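To illustrate the input format used throughout this study, we show a single complete record. The first block contains the structure-token representation of the backbone; no residue identities are included at this stage. The design step must infer an amino acid for every position from geometry alone.
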């Protein structure tokens, strides 16, 4: 499996650093509002990446953070006059519900920034000890970009002609305003009740330090893969590298991947431009999560994708073609009685094309071409029945194998598993964190709490799974 690495700007073979499990960190949502479908383009791309890694028989450990304290969440909570945690909870819950509607597989761990303030403070302390960070007069702490020689290696910036040397307190800024960035921000009037005590006084972490601290906690000081939308590349990911590598002296991440933006009339879909749709908006208009997923993944992740309702209407037609074909195939499978036969050669050929496409830097247009070729050839084979027969179950298995990556095909005799309620999902997430921290007492306590809600947790070396009791 080859992917394009934004750091080296080359296609490279993806091989687990520890020979076993790909450790993946995906920058998650800032929970100050409902995520829009531009955000979900990024999460859908990461889902395809995750599924393709598994398709290639590699193991995966994915961490997606929840940014529940930053400039935007504080502004939102204070404007609404509610506590930060209450404000962000609504959007965390909505986020998990939306992921489910889009058939995005859950990550192994969803750490929230506000649960990891001590780790962030420790990392900032290390950076001060190493001489790459300093305290300013107001009690904030800044990273001195001149002290880290590798600064700019991800964004490929030539700093000799550009560096302004100014300080930037905001979380987000552009390449023209590069300068020392905030690791810890001193409390200000506008922060209201939000703040934590630190060696530098009351304050809160900067956005960038959140991801360095949480990724290294759960994935180690050096890990395989880190992804996000292209807007995360600078300054967020550049700063993450600087913080982590200056602190540990080791390479932070092997491969960086970034998806292009979902656009509307040529402009990035974003909250600030007001040109966005949330998943809820589209579902209210009568589109399904499956149709929306189809549109989001049916373009190469590094190509721009322009959002249009006509694409959703086309998705409906394409999915109907697939459903008709798999439906007929299932009917034939029930009556044909041929179970042990060979995979039909035309289906095997389509699967080879499919695998080659997904393994070539997640070429999803190529993968869908292979799927529709399979539909066409299956229909042709069904039309030749009963004269020329073939193994329906083996042909169906090829559809299922492709769907391990795509996640858009329905199979008639599948009964969907009962969805895990948000309350149970939250407890499971907290339990995963307790187990990573080797807090077994807390882990047992959470298992009992989950059990009281009627769900049973099982632990294996791949993590925890949950089933409804008595099923
Ligand atoms: P945010 O909640 O703003 O931190 O963004 C969450 C994720 O969505 C990040 O990985 C962003 O890069 C990504 N993102 C934001 N807007 C878009 C867009 N229009 N198209 C694709 N990805 C986006
Ligand atoms: Zn991040």
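Output of the design step:
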């Amino acid at each position: 499996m080859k992917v394009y690495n934004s750091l080296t700007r080359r296609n490279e073979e993806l091989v687990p650093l520890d020979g076993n499990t790909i450790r993946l960190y995906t920058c998650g949502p800032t929970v100050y509002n409902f995520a829009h479908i531009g955000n979900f383009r990024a999460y859908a791309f990461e889902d395809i990446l995750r599924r393709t890694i598994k398709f290639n028989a590699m193991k995966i450990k994915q961490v997606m953070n929840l940014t529940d304290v930053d400039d935007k969440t504080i502004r939102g909570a204070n404007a609404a006059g509610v506590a930060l945690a209450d404000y962000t909870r609504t959007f965390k819950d909505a986020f998990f519900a939306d992921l489910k509607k889009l058939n995005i597989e859950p990550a192994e761990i969803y750490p929230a920034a506000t649960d990891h303030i001590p780790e962030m403070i420790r990392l900032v302390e290390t950076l001060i000890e190493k001489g790459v960070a300093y305290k300013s007069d107001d009690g904030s702490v800044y990273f001195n970009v001149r002290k880290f020689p590798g600064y700019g290696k991800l964004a490929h910036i030539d700093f000799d002609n550009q560096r302004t040397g100014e300080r930037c307190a905001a979380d987000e800024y552009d390449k023209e305003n590069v300068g020392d960035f905030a690791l810890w921000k001193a409390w200000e009037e506008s922060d209201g009740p939000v703040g934590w005590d630190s060696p530098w006084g009351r304050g809160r972490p900067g956005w960038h330090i959140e991801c360095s601290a949480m990724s290294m906690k759960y994935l180690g000081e050096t890990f395989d893969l880190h992804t996000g939308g292209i807007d995360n590349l600078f300054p967020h990911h550049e700063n993450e590298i600087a913080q982590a590598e200056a602190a540990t002296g080791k390479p932070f991440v092997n491969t960086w991947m970034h998806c292009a933006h979902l656009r509307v009339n040529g402009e990035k879909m974003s909250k600030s431009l007001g040109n966005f749709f949330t998943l809820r908006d589209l579902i209210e208009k009568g589109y399904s999560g499956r149709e929306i997923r189809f549109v989001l993944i049916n373009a190469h992740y590094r190509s721009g994708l322009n959002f249009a309702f006509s694409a959703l209407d086309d998705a409906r037609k394409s999915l109907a073609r697939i459903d008709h074909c798999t439906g007929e195939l299932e009917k034939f499978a029930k009556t044909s009685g041929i179970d042990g036969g060979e995979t039909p050669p035309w289906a095997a050929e389509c699967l080879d094309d499919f695998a080659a496409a997904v393994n070539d830097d997640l070429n999803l247009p190529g993968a869908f071409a292979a799927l529709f070729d399979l539909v066409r050839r299956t229909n042709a084979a069904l039309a030749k029945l009963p004269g020329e027969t073939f193994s329906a179950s083996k042909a169906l298995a090829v559809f299922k194998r492709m769907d391990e990556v795509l996640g858009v095909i329905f199979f008639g005799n599948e009964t969907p598993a009962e969805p895990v309620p948000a309350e149970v999902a939250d407890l499971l997430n907290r339990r995963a964190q307790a187990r990573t921290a080797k807090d077994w007492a807390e882990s047992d306590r959470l298992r009992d709490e989950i059990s009281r809600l009627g769900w049973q947790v099982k632990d294996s070396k791949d993590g925890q799974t949950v089933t409804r009791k008595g099923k």
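Structural context for interpreting the output: The chain has three domains: 2-259, 267-406, 422-468. The chain has a mean pLDDT of 92.
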